Amino acid sequence: MSFIDVVEQYEDFDVDGFLGQVTDRDVERALAKEKMEPMDFLALLSPTAAGHLEPMAQKARRLTVQYFGRTIQLFIPLYISNYCSNQCLYCGFNRTHAIERKTLTLEEIECEAQAIASTGMQHLLLLTGESLQATPMDYLEAAVRLLKRYFASVSIEIFPLDKADYRRLKTAGADGLTLYQETYDRSVYRQVHLAGRKADYRNRLDAPERGARAGFRAVNIGPLVGLGEKRHDVFMCGLHARYLDDRFLETEIGLSLPRINPAEGGYQPAHPADDRAFVQFLLALRLFMPRSALTVSTRERAGFRDRLIHLGVTRLSAGSCTGVGGYARPAERKTAQFEISDQRSVAQVAQAIAAQGYQPVYKDWDLIA
Predict the structure, then answer these.
(1) What digits encode the pLDDT tens for the residues 83-96?
(2) Is the Cβ–Cβ distance between 356 and 306 less than 8 Å?
(3) What is the torsion angle, in degrees rounded to the nearest 10, for the CA atoms of residue 335, residue 336, residue 338 and residue 343?
(4) C-alpha distance from residue 367 to each of 10, 73, 174, 259, 278 (Å)
(5) 142 within 8 A of 354, measured Cβ to Cβ
(6) Which helix (H) or strand (E) holds 255?
(7) What pTM was computed for the model?
(8) How far is residue 277's CA from residue 254's CA, in Å, rounded to a whole number?
C-alpha cells in the first residue's frame, strides 16, 4: 500500500459539500474527542469551525504543553546550491529564471557552518535546488559528513531520492527529511510543475515513506499553502501525516504549512490563506496529530510567529537566509528562493520565545554511535 491509495480514495469525495454541511454541534463533537477520525479533522477545517477558534486554541495549547512542554526547538536553513532542473511556476529557482546560479564548494560550506555554529544553532536544515548534475550524491554525502562536525542534527530538504540513496545520506549523518508535496491535487500539480523530475507526482508523494523506511529519525511534510484549494490540501496533508505515523512508529512525523511568499517570477497564489485561516489550519492539525512537531518558518512575520507560539507550534527557524550561502559573507548572497518575512537574528528569536514564557531549545537530540 502507498499513500496514493488514500489520495485516490478521496478524489471523488465531495469535500466542499461536506464542509458546507458542518454544524456547530459537529465541531463541538469533534473537539470533545480524545482521538479524532478524518471526518472530525475535516470538520475543524470548515468555515463553521472558524467560529470556534478559542476552544480550539485552548485544547491545542493544552495538548502541546502535555506532549512538548513549554519548549520551542530552533533550526536554521543552509542552501548550498540553487541549480534546478525543474520548471515550477511558484519557485525562484525555476530553471527558466535568469538568476545567478551557484553551488558551494566544500570549503565554502565549511565557512558557512562555522558562521552558523557561532550563533549557537545545533539543528541545521540542508537545502538545494533539484539538480542531480549540480549536486550529485557524492557531493551531498560529503556535505552532510562535513556539516555533522558542527551540528548535532543535520536534516535534508532536497529532491526525492530512492531508499538506497536516502540510506547513504543517513549513514553520512543526516537524521531528518523534509519534503513538501506542494499540493495533493493531481490536476493542480500538473499545472504548476511544467517540466523536470518534480513533475512526477507519485515519485514525490512516496518519497517521505521511502525516507522513513531508510531510517530517518524525523520526516517533515506539508503542502505549499496557496497552490491548491487550501482546505483540501491541509486535509490531505493531515491524512498523510496520520498514514506515516501509523506505519513508522520509530519516526517522528512533523508538519509545516508554508505559505507562498514573493519570489522571482512573480507567481500569485490561486488560493491564498489569510492569517485567521492559517491559525485555524494550524490548530486543526495540532488537534488531529497532537504528538507531531509543528514548524512555522521565517516566511511568516515576526509578531505573528510570536503569537503562534501559544497555539501548538513546536519548531521555529531563525536567522534564515534563503539564498545560497550568505551566512559567512552576507554581501555575497545569491538570489533567494523566496522572500522571508521575519528578519530577526537567532538571538532575537530566542529572546522573543523566552518573552512568551517558553524555552528556546538549540539542541534536543544527538547521535550516539
Answers:
(1) 999 999 999 899 99
(2) yes
(3) -130
(4) 39, 17, 10, 32, 34
(5) no
(6) strand 252-256
(7) 0.95
(8) 20
